[in-house]
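Write out the 3D structure for:
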Amino acid sequence: MTTNGNSANGTKKDPVLVVVQLSGGNDFMNTLIPYTAGMYYDNRPLVGIPEDKSLPINDTLAFHPSAAPLKSMFEDGKVAIVQGIGYPNASRSHFRSMDIWHTCEPEIIATEGWLAKVIKQFDPNSANPLTGVSFGRGLPRAMAAPGVIATSVDDLDNYGLMTSIEADQRRAEDLAIFKRMYTPAIGSGLVMDYFSDTGQSVLSGADLIKVAPQRYTSTVEYGNNPIAKSLRDVARVHTAELGTRIFYTQHGGYDHHAQEVPSHARLLAELTGAISDFWQDLREHDAADNVSMLVFTEFGRRIKDNGSGTDHGSGGGAFIIGDNVDGGLYAEYPSLAQADWERGEDLAHTFDFRGVYGTMLQQHLNVDPEPIVGGVYEQLHPYKETVNA
């Protein structure tokens, strides 16, 4: 089948991808809970979610009680849950694991982000600096590559109002953030290369993007938190029809070594509420049919709690969301049998993240995934209708 949503004048809309990064390592086992498994409660006496508070979706799995908006979207058939996502010999380092997710290179230090390669295909001559837009401070490595222009936006409302001095200062701050984020993973040499090439362009779309807030009206009231603000900004730019094909947002704070119970509940409430509001907003603007969202994190958490939280693990989960999504459970939930635990303490991954990327690249964006993800990987089939790649 071939499709993309048709606009009012009958022409096809270009497919759009929205990526939501959960930074710190979201606890997938407490997001999608094996709520009838005794081993879950045996190993999580502190952070385990009581069975009577969980939100069941079948006889074995339940959403965290704070993820009710996502459960509602799942029941509407709009959410594909990718279980057990990861990669072999997973790194427990935030820097290295996130770098692997951003570049699809587990063995070497790469110089090109996976989404930067997509942006380059969509806009080979960098004619539109808004082809790729990231909301939040510091351009993500996924969107960075020598010669590729992507726009990084912190405060959309004031973005186009900065003086040249303020813009230069903001650029310097963004580059400092970029250096701090990525030097531990890729070294100062490559970071400096980015500074001279990619980093200097992160503000290039300021004059173009400032029209987005002026064009936007909505009845949706987003929450007062960073991910809600970022997704509202995505909606504002997307509905302004400025040619953006790749959006990137980040929601931080998921590194729950301590105080996980209250912190994770708050973050999941913020995240799932913002996602629900975002899709309601897009539908209100008749702008949802060509959009697909990927929600991912760099790794899961360990099976056993540590008395206050959970430590870095593997075998995480991801979500593919959209009106063209055939909702349900995809891949396999990692085995709970102790003999199958990775490193004797982690959920083992059951599906390679590069296969998820490949699925979205080929079936949604109509892009050949092999040169972007570095090989051929098994794909999922989460879309009701797909484009021909």
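The radius of gyration is 20 Å.
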